């Protein structure tokens, strides 16, 4: 019996953070050249832009977040033992969005988005899969 | 084999899958080692307690001193001065004292035990990618380049982002590397030995509340102990008043010496909060007008009220280091790629967040799809494989797979096959998301986020 080997190779592209708006979480929308053959520039930009908007929503300062902050400090932050912070709620939303994007757009093109929270919000890691196979001894 | 097998495999446990291996290949993984939590392998110099829930700096001696001072002083106050004051003046005094004391203790513990905003270190892939980019930027010369910095314009001010050699990342603005804890911390204020932790983005508000409430508590105790002594000396004379409650003397001394530093510190931090600066920035004079007349703080919101609200009541970001998550199994990685493409022969250690039930299902589906690929590839093994484009040659030395016996890898060329394209459509998109396949023999263990070589025997 001659063994046949199927190999799935992958390379990774890292989308770095964009700091020109300050310390808020925002990723660069510049289209990496490695993805040129795989996906539309517009599609990619839309994904990153939506992610940026979601992170902005998480860190937004406004009436609602102040109210939550004040309420939390009054209860000595014990309220977070039973309740999720606004930021955590948005992070869950982001996780669902990324899963959805992977299923609908990225996986059919052999790409995989990794949730930035798993990389400490430093990068958006995109894994590019290529199928190769080794045929041996035939 | 058909995809229906995935249904039955959903109920399969990890060990059941591996026993279905048809080759006499031993599973490379130690199945019985207990899973470690990420705090156990955390690279920084922190101490963890309560299975990762509590996080402190390495040196905690001064923290215990702080705790003892507060507890002893308050204890003495409540035992010796409060009965007198409650009787002579009003019982509200001990109540207010009690509330202040609890608040101080709560904020102190919160500051000391929480993650200040530590940035996790870069994964090996990320670090390699950054190194490559920096090399390209430097023209690829062999000499060690000068300290790596990136300039970025924030709100009209040019800010330099420094590269951290320990954490292998470009530090975000306002982040700094704490040499005591050996971590990069977001919005790094300072390392406080009194609380036994760094003060950063996530615990600055607790720190501020701590020193503010401690100032009030110190002044409160000081004032009422003096009141006690004065009232007592009206009745019995000054010296006998002192003799009757020696504890009061001790309290006065402690409070007198601490009030200056603590109230001073509270005032200083109130100034910092209202101008949205960190201690680090203030000490370095980063935004001082002495540096240049165009120098201003780009992070300030413009008015004191917004700055205060943002610092104290803004959204609390979650911890980025996921201390209580589980570490995925650690197996040696391949030799570094030569052309940017990584071919995996064994899993590389990947740390993912605590796996959910989704991961299990994903693994099973990936497994099933791979088995399908194997079946199809074995059917096409005899003469149906077309070489599409010449793939890069892979020397056998780059594949350090310990799970595939050397005899099965003969030729060192990879031929791309049409199998992949036809099976791509059958592979559901969810299978590619965050699942790793350990070396496959026929069916084997599946880990998250690594891809392994698959071998199958062609009948």
Automatic annotation (TrEMBL), chain A:
It holds the Pfam family Erf4. Residues 13-125 form the Golgin subfamily A member 7/ERF4 domain. InterPro entries: Golgin_A_7/ERF4, Ras_palmitoyltransferase. It is found in: Golgi apparatus membrane. Keywords: Golgi apparatus, Lipoprotein, Membrane, Palmitate. It comes from the Eukaryota. GO terms for cellular component: Golgi membrane; Golgi stack; palmitoyltransferase complex. It is a lipid-anchor. GO terms for biological process: Golgi to plasma membrane protein transport; protein targeting to membrane. The keyword tRNA-binding does not apply. Belongs to the ERF4 family. May be involved in protein transport from Golgi to cell surface. The ZDHHC9-GOLGA7 complex is a palmitoyltransferase specific for HRAS and NRAS. This is Golgin subfamily A member 7.
TrEMBL record, chain B:
It comes from the Eukaryota. Its EC number is 2.3.1.225. GO terms for cellular component: endoplasmic reticulum; Golgi apparatus; membrane. One of its GO terms (biological process) is protein targeting to membrane. Coiled coil: none annotated. It is found in: Membrane. Residues 160-284 form the Palmitoyltransferase DHHC domain. This is Palmitoyltransferase. The chain crosses the membrane at residues 62-80, 92-113, 206-230, 250-274. Its main location: membrane. It comes from Astatotilapia calliptera. The keyword Transferase applies. Pfam families: DHHC. One of its GO terms (molecular function) is protein-cysteine S-palmitoyltransferase activity. InterPro entries: Palmitoyltrfase_DHHC, PFA4/ZDH16/20/ERF2-like. Belongs to the DHHC palmitoyltransferase family. Keywords: Acyltransferase, Membrane, Transferase, Transmembrane, Transmembrane helix. It is a multi-pass membrane protein. PROSITE patterns: DHHC (PS50216). It catalyses: L-cysteinyl-[protein] + hexadecanoyl-CoA = S-hexadecanoyl-L-cysteinyl-[protein] + CoA. The DHHC domain is required for palmitoyltransferase activity.
């Amino acid at each position: 019996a001659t063994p046949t080997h199927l190999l799935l190779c992958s390379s990774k592209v890292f989308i770095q953070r964009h700091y020109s708006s300050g310390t808020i979480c925002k990723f660069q929308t510049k289209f990496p050249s490695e993805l040129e053959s795989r996906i539309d520039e517009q599609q990619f930009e839309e994904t990153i832009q939506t992610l940026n908007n979601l992170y902005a929503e998480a860190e937004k300062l406004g009436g609602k977040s102040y109210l939550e902050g004040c309420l939390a400090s009054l209860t000595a932050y014990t309220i977070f033992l039973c309740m999720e912070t606004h930021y955590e709620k948005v992070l869950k939303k982001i996780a669902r969005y990324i899963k959805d994007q992977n299923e609908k757009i990225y996986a059919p093109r052999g790409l995989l988005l990794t949730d930035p929270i798993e990389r400490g919000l430093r990068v958006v890691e995109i894994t590019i899969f290529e199928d190769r196979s080794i045929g041996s001894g035939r | 084999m058909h995809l229906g097998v995935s249904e039955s495999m959903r109920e399969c446990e990890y060990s059941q899958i591996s026993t279905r291996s048809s080759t006499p290949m031993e599973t490379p993984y130690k199945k019985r080692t207990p899973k470690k939590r990420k705090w156990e392998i955390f690279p920084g110099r922190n101490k963890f307690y309560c299975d990762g829930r509590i996080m402190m700096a390495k040196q905690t001696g001064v923290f215990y001193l702080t705790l003892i001072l507060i507890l002893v002083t308050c204890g003495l106050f409540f035992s010796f001065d409060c009965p007198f004051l409650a009787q002579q003046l009003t019982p509200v005094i001990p109540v207010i004292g009690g509330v202040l004391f609890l608040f101080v203790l709560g904020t102190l513990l919160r500051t000391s035990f929480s993650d200040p905003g530590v940035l996790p270190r870069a994964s090996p892939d990320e670090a390699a990618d950054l190194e490559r980019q920096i090399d390209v930027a430097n023209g690829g010369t062999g000499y060690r380049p000068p300290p790596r910095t990136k300039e970025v314009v924030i709100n009209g001010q040019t800010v330099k982002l420094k590269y951290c050699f320990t954490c292998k990342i470009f530090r975000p603005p306002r982040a700094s590397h704490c040499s005591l804890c050996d971590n990069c911390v977001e919005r790094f204020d300072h390392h406080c030995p009194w609380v036994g932790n760094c003060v950063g983005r996530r615990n600055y508000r607790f720190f501020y509340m701590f020193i503010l409430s401690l100032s009030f508590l110190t002044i409160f105790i000081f004032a009422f102990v003096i009141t006690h002594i004065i009232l007592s000396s009206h009745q019995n004379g000054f010296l006998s008043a002192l003799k009757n409650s020696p504890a009061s003397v001790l309290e006065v001394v402690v409070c007198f010496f601490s009030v200056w530093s603590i109230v001073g510190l509270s005032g200083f931090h109130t100034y910092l909060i209202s101008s949205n600066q960190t201690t680090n920035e203030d000490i370095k004079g980063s935004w001082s007008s002495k540096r240049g007349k165009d120098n201003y703080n780009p992070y300030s919101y413009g008015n004191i009220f917004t700055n205060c609200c943002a610092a104290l009541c803004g959204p609390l970001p979650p911890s980025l280091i996921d201390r209580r998550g589980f570490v995925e199994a650690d197996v040696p990685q391949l030799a570094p790629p030569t052309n940017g493409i990584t071919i995996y022969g064994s899993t590389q250690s990947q740390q993912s967040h605590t796996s959910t039930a989704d991961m299990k299902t994903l693994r099973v589906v990936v497994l099933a799809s791979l088995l399908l690929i194997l079946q199809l590839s074995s059917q096409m093994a005899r003469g149906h494989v077309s070489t599409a484009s010449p793939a890069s040659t892979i020397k056998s030395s780059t594949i350090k797979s310990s799970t595939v016996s050397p005899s099965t890898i003969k030729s060192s060329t990879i031929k791309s096959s049409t199998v992949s394209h036809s099976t791509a459509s059958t592979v559901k998109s969810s299978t590619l998301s965050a699942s790793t396949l350990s070396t496959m023999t026929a069916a084997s263990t599946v880990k998250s986020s690594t891809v392994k070589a698959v071998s199958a025997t062609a009948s």
